[in-house]
Amino acid sequence: MKEYKDLSKEELLKLKIELENKYDDMVSLNLKLNMARGLPSAEQLDMEADFFNTLNPNVNFISEAGIDCRNYGELIGIREARELMGDMMEIPADNVIVFGNSSLNVMYDTVARSMILGVCGSTPWCKLDKVKFLCPAPGYDRHFAITESFGIEMIVIPMLPTGPDMDMVEEYVNNDPAVKGIWCVPKYSNPQGITYSEETVKRFANLKPAAEDFRIFWDNAYCIHHLYDDKQDFLLEILEECKKAGNPDIVYKFCSTSKVTFPGSGIAALGTSENNINFIKKVITIQTIGHDKLNQLRHVRYFKNIDGMREHMRKHAKILRPKFEMVVSTLDKELGGLGIGTWTRPIGGYFVSFESLDGCAKDIVKRCKDAGVTLTGAGATYPYKNDPHDSNIRIAPTFPPIDELEKAIDIFTLCVKLSSIEKILSER
Amino acid sequence: MKEYKDLSKEELLKLKIELENKYDDMVSLNLKLNMARGLPSAEQLDMEADFFNTLNPNVNFISEAGIDCRNYGELIGIREARELMGDMMEIPADNVIVFGNSSLNVMYDTVARSMILGVCGSTPWCKLDKVKFLCPAPGYDRHFAITESFGIEMIVIPMLPTGPDMDMVEEYVNNDPAVKGIWCVPKYSNPQGITYSEETVKRFANLKPAAEDFRIFWDNAYCIHHLYDDKQDFLLEILEECKKAGNPDIVYKFCSTSKVTFPGSGIAALGTSENNINFIKKVITIQTIGHDKLNQLRHVRYFKNIDGMREHMRKHAKILRPKFEMVVSTLDKELGGLGIGTWTRPIGGYFVSFESLDGCAKDIVKRCKDAGVTLTGAGATYPYKNDPHDSNIRIAPTFPPIDELEKAIDIFTLCVKLSSIEKILSER
Q1: Cβ contact (<8 Å) for A287 and B104?
Q2: B 3-42 residues with CB below 8 A of A?
């Protein structure tokens, strides 16, 4: 099989007509398929049925500390929930606050709090002329949306196989006091599925920020979201590394059970130093009387402990694995050797990341859309929705049933081919 | 019976010794009683047992609009929850956003949002030299804590039997562009149990604010929290009045089921104009993917509709009524005619408000504490915890079992007497 770039103009034109016919057939099917967002499938959610029996009229609602979880109190979460989420984050319960249903909300509030009240006594960011965040990209669009909404300047940091380009990170963080934060998805990153190397984590922990109120926003969304038992990435625990490096306050860790139990009805947590916890406690004691302790209790009683959670995630993996494998093998089969794209082979997380020829991503997404397949908008994985190469496409294979996913990925590969041919022809 | 002020010095001194002996007896009992905060009692919470069967493995989790409530989506709440909360607030579902578990959190976020992003396009409050809020007082301490935490200047507005002093409110709001808001608990107010009169509501609706970004923070926390079937206050619905007055955007209504189902595990809602809803939607779409729809579904399926909720609140009233009646009749019996205090006779809400002689409230609360009875801190019902007369004490009779409450209120009346005698003697 020849790479497309080695085909003659005539060969390309002939192929183009063939593919266009196929594409027209697809369009005429009026499909409605969606590979846009990282949603658990109904099959995963069905599995959680017993969760709803966890609390019932015959159980008590008293926490281990003797608190009636049906009433007010326990601002930072019941102890056993802090322990469970601490185990999920591999840190002690003392370093954990359990919040409401959404880690995104916790992250948003963490930035908002810094805007209005500063960080542990620093000048509120809204009083500063300029606030900047580093944004490893491709990354999670909702992270970038938060910083953009507050008028924070976003600086793109390229992603390497080991994580963000740490030379650049160090250069910015250690020299520019306007750099106040960096967004990270350190394990099975969104969308590339990259896990930061040990060296990367250590370099993060050993940063010497020019700004005392610089913080790492460590969104460990996929910490226990492995696809395989025997192939798993290992991520060095950063809070301990920061402590060792004399930087105990430099990191906020975030996680949630949104993709463990239920998106929107899980529990979310923040893990950070005692200093940071104390400051945040003072602020949130004004914001709320407490989060949903019954839901915390539900989670603790359902899973019992981190082993229960890991066991549960194995069941999720069993459902998700065939979907990921089908997507990757279809990409291999249809696009392998053609020189018109590269793709990831995830062993965890929620996405497959695709890199097209430069300048083709928007066009591919549009073609897919016209044939009834919704993908995450091209550019969404970059700050300001601006992918400088217009090449990254995030594929989310988790939600659709596998037969729909098959159709969708067929259309996708067809669109990649068509778009690439036009691109190559336009450059001849 | 003579008023204390008409007793001779000798009579007062004699009485003082008698009461001190009684007080010492009480102290020696080492009681631990709490009338500090407005918590539902365990008896109220026990009643909700069936709530936990509402969602179980045998039901479906699909909203009326066909949304799987177990997955992401429905940022502003499922339609049927918006309807239920709309009925609670007496406004259409279109004007409602259902949030998470805490209306306090919604209020905090509403102020925080205005600080960072302004109100519907106005200058962010954090960019202004001065922001002021009007604070009808006595009022809810947690409202004042929010504005204080953001450095907003608080101006005390006296409470009259008809609600806040509207002459003063109009004077400030209509002339001072730094006045951006006012905190209101318009029905069965905290702590006085006052319901704003029709004229008061109409005057609110007809304000002509000097600031375009002025908003009324209408915390209708006790909207369906009646103690009697046959004696109920009526509050004019303000959103419609504002619309009629050509001020459609001037009010945010807040409510929750914290004291209907479970504090911390209820659902909270905001009710406001379409303009405000659209602005807030744009902001919260960055903050979260959605709130806990399963809990919304639980509430809707448990109550079915507002009639179910009202019926349910009748059962709460049955539990609470004897407590309130015992408190008021004890105050009548022990303090009536002595001229050393006045108290409210609530027909709804969660509090009894007590006015001591000037300068006695702190002393009474301290004496109670020393005898094992915790009350809300004196001054807490005023901005900056500064009660200018040192006279208001908030009594929260809902949580303790009635036998404990009896003991606590006995100690309270004893402390009022002792404190009043010392005050009168000191002025002779």
Answers
A1: yes
A2: 37, 39-40, 42
Residue A363 has pLDDT above 90, yes or no: yes
How far apart CA B351 and CA B396 sit, in angstroms, is 5
Give the H or E element holding residue A145: helix A141-149
Q: By three-state DSSP, how is residue B340 classified?
A: coil
Kindly state the tokens that stand for B52. Answer: 């936990």
What's the average model confidence in pLDDT over A247-264? 97
Q: Are strands B373-375 and B341-343 parallel, antiparallel or unpaired?
A: unpaired
Counts for chain B of helices (H) and strands (E), in that order: 13, 13
**Residue B1's pLDDT band (boundaries 50, 70, 90)?**
confident
Provide the pLDDT for residue A167: 98
Pick from A342-346, B33-37, B275-279: least confident: B33-37
Mean pLDDT of chain B: 97
Q: What are phi and psi of B359, to 5 degrees?
A: 85, 10
Domains and CATH numbers, chain A: 4-44+310-426 (3.90.1150.10), 61-304 (3.40.640.10)
Please give the pLDDT value at position B111. Answer: 98
For tokens 């290992």, what's the residue? A234
CB atoms within 10 A of CB B94: 11
SS3 content of chain B, % helix, strand, coil (to 5): 45, 15, 40
* Selected residue of A52, A76, A144 to mutate for chain B interface (largest B Cβ count, 10 A): A52
Lookup result for tokens 């090449």: A391
Q: Does B115 touch chain A (CB under 8 A)?
A: yes
Residue B116 near residue B126 (C-beta atoms within 8 A): yes
> What SS3 string covers B223-235?
CCCECCCCCCCCC
Three-state DSSP at A252 gives strand
